[in-house]
């Protein structure tokens, strides 16, 4: 019976820097990204730590997300109260909290 031994591909430091940079901008979680790329997730996390100080400035130079000010909503006009509002919450252990508005 013949067994196949899978050979682990050795990636260079430059390769890992590319993987980490791509991962940080991909929006994927680590497990999915590594599965798609055929990488070991613990190695990606390790290299992410190695490059943290080197990659952070590059990420911070990316365009900031714009902010759209939607303004404020006008105050609602007061509505006449009609009827009684009663709310009962069963808190368990025989405790019932009752809130009533007349």
Automatic annotation (TrEMBL):
Top-level taxon in the UniProt lineage: Bacteria
Name of the protein this chain belongs to: IS66 family insertion sequence element accessory protein TnpB
């Amino acid at each position: 019976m013949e067994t196949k031994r899978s050979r682990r591909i050795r990636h260079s430091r430059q390769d890992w820097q590319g993987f980490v940079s791509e991962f940080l901008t991909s929006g994927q979680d680590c497990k999915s990204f590594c599965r798609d790329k055929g990488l070991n997730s613990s190695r990606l996390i390790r290299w992410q730590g190695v490059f943290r100080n080197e990659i952070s400035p590059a990420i911070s130079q990316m365009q900031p997300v714009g902010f759209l000010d939607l303004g404020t909503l006008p105050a609602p006009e007061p509505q006449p109260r009609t009827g009684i509002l009663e709310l009962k919450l069963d808190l368990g252990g025989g405790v019932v909290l009752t809130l009533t508005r007349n």
